[in-house]
Specification:
By secondary structure, this protein is α/β, with parallel strands linked by helices. It folds into 3 domains: 21-242, P-loop containing nucleotide triphosphate hydrolases (Rossmann fold, 3-Layer(aba) Sandwich), CATH 3.40.50.300; 266-469, Nucleotidyltransferase, domain 5 (2-Layer Sandwich), CATH 3.30.420.240; 476-511, no CATH class. The protein is 36% helix and 20% strand. The chain is built from 18 helices and 19 strands. An 8-stranded mixed sheet has the order 3-4-5-2-6-7-1-8. The protein has a 7-stranded mixed sheet with strand order 10-9-11-14-13-12-15. A two-stranded antiparallel ribbon has the order 16-17. The protein is elongated. It starts with a helix and ends with a helix. 35% of the residues are buried.
């Protein structure tokens, strides 16, 4: 190596060591990340915004010709947040960079031609003048609309030899937020756009525990919420997705259950031979993107029930929930966006796979699935009874109808079941839907909040409701004299007689 090469190597090593000493280790790899979308989700005090500002300053001081836009939803909030932070970081780490500050329009210029400008998305006139942008930092990105983001994304088309990037920093607000759907779940209907978004996105999650520079007093303040408001601690401090409305289910118990979940034991779909009259030769096929997630494979002789919600008004997914009828625990879920005939056949296979489970299909918007199961000679469907208004005779029909009378009943029963047995839910999507199933403030009707779905909730409610039509198998007697801990006794004391029976079956009789 030449002396010049050695000097450059030492200089690079010194730069890296200095950066590492003044940065949190969990963010270090992100300094070198070149994805178009760098999405930083974090709890309070995690250091995500400090990192975003530092990365921008590293780039504008080292790479000539940048024009970085720093923005928030409201312009007047930028001065005391992002702009103030950037000035502090410049003073601490980049005093010799020759930067010039215009405090009037909150911009920063650098000798190499790079600049940082700021704007609020409520400042329409200033946004019109924004052009030649090579990088964007959106602080508190959860405050902006997806349409706002799309406009910013379009404006990232400045000329530069270096990579372009949008950095989004935010605290998770709602589990149904567009940020989660777009960058974490990738719920994008167009396969090509979805694949492109996945390839162009890097997400990062952090909490106050990742911030070694957070003062001890601030750490103690955050950790006090463990004892005073555990749900707030989980959402604000640990950066878990939260809810904006008041869920009808026990949000704290569900948020805790989310942290305990294990991945499915199997993910895939069913293949079969179809001669036009019946389905034969059903075969389970593993597939990473399969529509069926199995948490507990079927056990010989065990009775199962399946509640199914078809894609109807306000819904875009077909869902079927499988329960072990001995305990009510969720064994599997079928969920996808496909044609009704495909759903009917997958449902027929799923029911057969689970020991010819009792299937109850919602028939509000279409009776096709129930009729198709009958045509395929599926042997065990839920039967509802009603009075014929003409003959006044009892009429029996396949399928479950969700109406003004039945909907409140099945939701109330599910609320009670979840309160007594949250560990019986094993699917992440189901819990997320429960967390966004709120009481409408005007009508007081329990329903999915705006932008969220309730397919999994309704399918699970139907499954629990139809359980009496399936045979119950008595579990082996639990060992007598089981010692319960204090929290179990508290749950038992608050439970109804039916819930107490369920708890005893689950935990065993206390000594």
């Amino acid at each position: 190596m030449t002396k010049e090469e050695i000097d450059k190597a030492y200089e690079a090593a010194a730069w890296y060591m200095g950066l590492r000493e003044t940065s949190n280790s969990s963010f270090m790899p992100l300094y070198f990340d070149e994805h178009r979308y760098l999405v930083l989700k974090g709890g309070g005090g995690s250091g995500k915004s400090v990192f975003a500002g530092r990365k921008i300053l590293e780039r504008v001081t080292a790479e000539p010709g940048h024009r970085w836009l720093v923005c928030r939803k409201v312009a007047k909030t930028i001065r005391e947040s992002c702009f103030k932070q950037l000035l502090g970081q410049l003073s601490e780490h980049y005093q010799g960079s020759g930067y010039r500050v215009n405090k009037g329009d909150m911009s920063i210029l650098f000798p190499n031609g790079s600049e940082i400008i700021t704007a609020g998305l409520d400042d329409v006139e200033k946004l019109k003048s924004i052009y030649n942008i090579t990088g964007i930092w959106i602080e508190e990105a959860s405050e902006i609309l997806e349409s706002d983001f799309n406009q910013l994304d379009i404006r990232l088309r400045g000329e530069t030899r270096n990579y372009k990037q949008i950095i989004l920093t935010f605290n998770p607000i709602s589990i149904s937020h567009w940020l989660k759907r777009r960058f974490f779940d990738f719920e994008i209907s167009d396969p090509e756009v979805r694949a492109e978004t996945i390839a162009n996105t890097r997400t990062h999650e952090s909490t106050y525990k990742d911030n070694r520079f957070l003062p001890a007093e601030d750490v103690r303040t955050l950790e006090r919420f463990k004892g005073t408001d555990e749900y707030y601690y989980q959402v604000y401090c640990l950066g878990m997705w939260g809810v904006t409305g008041r869920t009808v289910f026990d949000a704290q118990a569900l948020a805790k259950r989310l942290q305990e979940l294990k991945p499915p034991k199997q993910t895939g779909l069913f293949e079969f031979d179809d001669n036009g009259l019946s389905i034969r030769g059903i075969r389970w096929v593993e597939a990473k993107e399969g529509c069926v997630r199995v948490y507990h494979p079927p056990e010989p002789g065990v009775p199962y029930v399946i509640g199914a919600d078809t894609a109807g008004e306000g819904s875009d997914s077909f869902v079927a929930q499988v329960l072990d009828n001995r305990t009510g625990e969720q064994a599997a879920i079928l969920r996808g966006q496909f044609d009704e005939d495909v759903f009917a056949r997958q449902l027929c296979c799923l029911g057969t796979y689970y020991n010819q489970a009792l299937i109850g299909v919602e028939t509000n918007f279409s009776t096709y699935t129930a009729l198709e199961l009958e045509r395929l000679r599926y042997p065990r469907q839920y039967v509802r009874q009603s009075v014929d208004t003409f003959t006044h005779e009892i009429k029996s029909s396949y399928g479950f109808r969700t109406d003004l009378k039945t909907r409140p009943v099945i939701i109330a029963e599910l609320i009670k079941t979840v309160r007594a047995y949250p560990e019986g839910i094993n699917d992440e999507t189901t819990i997320e839907e429960m967390l966004t199933f709120v009481r409408n403030p005007e009508t007081l009707k329990p329903e999915a909040e705006a932008g969220a779905h309730d397919d999994c909730v309704l399918a699970l409610a139907i499954a629990h409701f139809i359980r009496p039509q399936q045979e119950y198998v008595k579990l082996p007697e639990q060992e007598q004299g089981v010692k319960w801990h204090e929290s179990q006794w508290e749950d038992f004391d608050r439970a109804s007689p039916e819930e107490r029976e369920m708890l005893i079956r689950r935990w065993g009789k206390p000594g």
